[in-house]
């Protein structure tokens, strides 16, 4: 377990929401203008703090979904029983100010100098930090080969669908649609399983570097599956989120 | 007048007073946060060791099970902002384990399968505040939650309760562990919101 040490004080600051992008019916990207952003690495996250008029506060953390050097974005999935995600996906308008601080985390990060080949595995909105890595690679003209295995409920639930459909040399995107598939779908129509990993993942002999992000059970089964394929545990970095809270 | 988030009302929780630290919300789930795959160490190969004392000490799983165990009900608080109230654990008190060695060292670095480490003051491990837990909610601790055994130090943020713990290294100085190296707080008191360095 090694990486870049990041230390230093994190302070809250008011960022301005400059625009909103509806990714799917339940998922929205918020683009921020952050006056004093120290820069980030692909894969890091930030803290959001909301304050009600009576002083009540709620805080959550979100992965940064933009590449280093781009305006800071987060991509939020609305959880119907959530407290913060309905606000961020339904109430927030361009021009609103939101308090945030970051970047946070230094282990689940990648930049092209870390090499590859890269095995990215995403479940649902777990795509967000991996999308930052894909964009970073493109921005810097990296030729590190990337395979992204991305599990979504249906085609309509695929976040960044158009962006990921654009051809990019050395990037292969493999979708798995778990609940519903469009007519004529020839891709995977089930949850990620061992057979799928065997078919899709880089051979262990190529010493791939893996980032897996998604719900706990998804990341557990993916990381165990890759270990079973001979991937060394120290080359698999994971980020998991629980089903509640958002 | 401080900062107000336009249109944010929040969803107040009916949590018992004094149970939920600032910035936390209560969940009934048990989310999992780990930096890598879940290790699986067979019990016959498992040991718990204390290094850095005048005489090192090590217990096999069998030795460990023969130690006096306690069942405790505690609240736990993750730095990612979920808190879980009234969780039930069984484990061996660190008073018992640290009582088996002679040392004046003020700090420990806990080490684990998978390479994870975290640093703690010895004073926070003594006095009935900390355990090496192997049962959760009446059953064996599941691997994804740190089984076969994890540290349980509920008065600090839960990353200090290292999963898959295999021992403690007593130290004269406070050396940052895994997350601490990445900017997380050296101590991690949830009531003072010590999430990150400088908090």
Secondary structure: helix percent of chain A: 10-25%
CATH 2nd-level architecture of the largest domain in chain A: 3-Layer(aba) Sandwich
Tell me the name of the CATH homologous superfamily of chain B: Oxidoreductase, molybdopterin-binding domain
Q: According to CATH, what is the class of the largest domain in chain A?
A: Alpha Beta
Largest sheet of chain A: 6 strands, antiparallel
CATH topology of chain B: Sulfite Oxidase, Chain A, domain 2
Strand order of the largest sheet of chain A: 4-3-6-1-2-5
Number of strands of chain B: 11
Terminus-to-terminus distance of chain A:
29 Å
**Category from helices, strands and their pairing of chain A:** alpha/beta
Strand content of chain B: 25-35%
The third-level CATH topology of the largest domain in chain A is: Rossmann fold
How many domain units of chain A? 2
Number of helices of chain B: 3
Mean pLDDT of chain A: 93
Q: How does this structure look, described?
A:
Chain A folds into two domains: 92 residues, Translation factors (Elongation Factor Tu (Ef-tu), domain 3, Beta Barrel); 130 residues, Rossmann fold (3-Layer(aba) Sandwich). Chain A is of the alpha/beta class. The longest helix of chain B is centred in the N-terminal third of the chain and has 6 residues. The model of chain B has no long low-confidence stretch (mean pLDDT 94). Classes of the chains: A alpha/beta (246), B mainly beta (199). The interface between A and B is large, with 51 and 42 residues.
Strand and helix map with partners:
The complex is a heterodimer of chains A (246) and B (199).
Chain A: E1 13-22, E2 27-33, E3 45-51, E4 57-63, E5 73-77, H1 85-91, E6 97-104, E7 118-123, H2 127-139, E8 146-152, H3 161-165, E9 171-177, H4 194-200, E10 209-215, H5 216-228, E11 236-241
Parallel strand pairs in A: 7-8, 7-10, 8-9, 10-11
Antiparallel strand pairs in A: 1-2, 1-6, 2-5, 3-4, 3-6
Chain B: E1 25-26, E2 47-51, E3 57-60, H1 61-66, E4 70-77, E5 82-93, H2 94-98, E6 107-112, E7 117-121, E8 131-136, E9 139-140, E10 150-152, E11 165-171, H3 178-181
Parallel strand pairs in B: 1-5, 2-11
Antiparallel strand pairs in B: 2-3, 4-5, 5-8, 6-7, 6-11, 8-9, 8-10
